[in-house]
Design brief:
Tetracycline Repressor, domain 2; TetR/AcrR family transcriptional regulator; 10 helices; mainly alpha; Homeodomain-like_sf; globular; HTH-type_TetR-like_transc_reg; Arc Repressor Mutant, subunit A
């Protein structure tokens, strides 16, 4: 989680975290569909409007680290060293995300998500958004339009790698296996993109 710097920002972040933690506890105790936003707000001792000022929907309460994950993926592209290859940098980040989401504490949450059509639909839309943000970051580094097909394709593969590895019997081994295929695919399309541009890092 990104640590806010100012006092006001820290207070907002603490409130957001309290709401998310309270919601998740209630969802796991009573079931996702059995708990309403008003109950979450009452248990967290905040107004309903405060809940919605931090989270756009009930589903978003379950995926409270959504924006952090998205930013981490983008930074894996934008913050790497000038000559650091793209795919290994993304593989390292996906390894970290998979470790985070396959710990013992995460298992009940994922069972809840899989059992809820609304949460599964939200997760799919979230993954698509992450893929588009990642594709834009990759394309920007190559001075290409955000909608460049090769960049969008690799970004989708990376996001799918996270999902597939999370569901595998050996998640970390699965990440490596999938990324060997991604790296091979990128090696084919990358030369066609050229090496011009201030941020061209392959």
């Amino acid at each position: 989680m990104i640590v806010p710097t100012g006092r006001r920002e820290r207070k907002k972040a603490a409130t957001r975290q309290k709401i998310a933690d309270t919601a998740l506890r209630l969802f796991l105790e009573r079931g996702y569909d059995a708990v309403g936003i008003r109950e979450v707000a009452a248990e967290a001792d905040v107004a309903v409007t405060t809940v919605f000022s931090h989270f756009a929907s009930k589903e978003a309460l379950v995926f409270e680290q959504d924006e952090d994950f998205e930013q981490r993926l983008v930074r894996a592209v934008t913050d790497r060293a000038p000559h650091e290859p793209l795919i290994p940098a993304l593989r390292q980040e996906i390894h970290a995300l998979v470790r985070h989401c396959t710990g013992d504490d995460a298992a009940p949450v994922w069972r809840m998500i899989v059992a809820s059509p609304a949460l599964l639909e939200y997760e799919e839309s979230m993954r698509l958004r992450h893929a588009e943000s990642l594709a834009a970051a990759i394309a920007a580094g190559l001075d290409l339009p955000p909608a460049t097909t090769s960049c969008r394709t690799v970004a989708r593969f990376v996001i799918d790698a996270y999902t597939l590895a999370r569901e595998a019997a050996e998640p970390q081994d699965a990440v490596d296996e999938i990324f060997r295929m991604i790296e091979a695919a990128w090696a084919v399309v990358r030369p066609a993109q050229g090496t011009t541009g201030h941020g061209a890092k392959g």
